[in-house]
Design goal:
Order of helices and strands of chain B: EEEEEEEEEEE
Number of domains of chain A: 1
Largest sheet of chain A: 6 strands, mixed
Strand content of chain A: over 45%
Number of helices of chain A: 0
Largest sheet of chain B: 7 strands, mixed
Structural class of chain A: mainly beta
CATH architecture of chain A: Sandwich
Number of strands of chain B: 11
Number of helices of chain B: 0
Shape of chain A: globular
Number of domains of chain B: 1
Distance between the termini of chain B: 34 Å
CATH architecture of chain B: Sandwich
CATH class of chain A: Mainly Beta
CATH topology of chain A: Immunoglobulin-like
CATH topology of chain B: Immunoglobulin-like
Oligomer: heterodimer
Shape of chain B: globular
CATH superfamily of chain A: Immunoglobulins
CATH class of chain B: Mainly Beta
Radius of gyration of chain A: 14 Å
Helix content of chain B: under 10%
């Protein structure tokens, strides 16, 4: 079983602060996705990283895939209340029966005005 | 948005009764997925479909069955609901398998008493 551990599980910060969320595994993934989920809704894809060491930016969000493709991080600069939500990482890995997507438990982020 | 709807959005049922959840998509996506989301476990794959009448098991398939008779509809059935199946169920669709973007529906909150 491929496991993804996210940390921290909960994060409460003030508007304007920076933060980093981590997604770690002992398994190698062919790609890794980050989703954001708001209360009462389904997750929405933010980004997919594919290459080891890859860095992608989405406005104030920076995503990095580890060189060994076992871990990833999400950094938010100058957080805003609109960033509040559950952030999920999901790794795509190869199995004999085909690829599967494994989700981490998520990081619940609250940005206070 | 991939035009994914789920019905019902909320359901309360009793142990031992059969329950069917419906996922409907308007995007003609080949792949459809059923996940459950529980505190401490994140999103876990129940079953998925890679075409009409083509389905496969996920990591938590016991007690669940699925059917896909049309591209646009994917049904999840709990043959005899148990309290451990109380959860939020999400349907997702995608064009090209697990490594591709998954578009999630709004979820169904199921309570089994």
């Amino acid at each position: 079983t491929q496991l993804l551990e996210q940390s921290p599980q909960f994060l409460s910060i003030q508007e304007g602060e920076n933060l980093t969320v981590y997604c770690n595994s002992s398994s190698v993934f062919s790609s890794l996705q980050w989703y954001r989920q708001e209360p009462g809704e389904g997750p929405v894809l933010l980004v997919t990283v594919v290459t080891g060491g890859e860095v992608k930016k989405l406005k104030r969000l920076t995503f990095q895939f580890g060189d060994a493709r076992k871990d990833s991080s999400l950094h938010i600069t100058a957080a805003q209340p609109g960033d509040t939500g559950l952030y999920l990482c999901a790794g795509a890995g190869k199995r004999a029966s085909g690829s599967r997507l494994t989700f981490g438990e998520g990081t619940q982020l609250t940005v206070n005005p | 948005d991939a035009g994914i709807t789920q019905s019902p959005r909320h359901k309360v049922t009793e142990t031992g009764t059969p329950v069917t959840l419906r996922c409907h998509q308007t995007e003609n996506h080949r792949y459809m997925y059923w996940y459950r989301q529980d505190p401490g476990h994140g999103l876990r794959l129940i079953h998925y479909s890679y075409g009409v009448k083509d389905t496969d098991k996920g990591e938590v398939s016991d007690g669940y069955s699925v059917s896909r008779s049309k591209t646009e509809d994917f049904l999840l059935t709990l043959e005899s609901a148990t309290s451990s199946q109380t959860s939020v169920y999400f349907c997702a669709t995608g064009l090209a398998g697990f490594t591709d973007t998954q578009y999630f529906g709004p979820g169904t909150r199921l309570t089994v008493l």
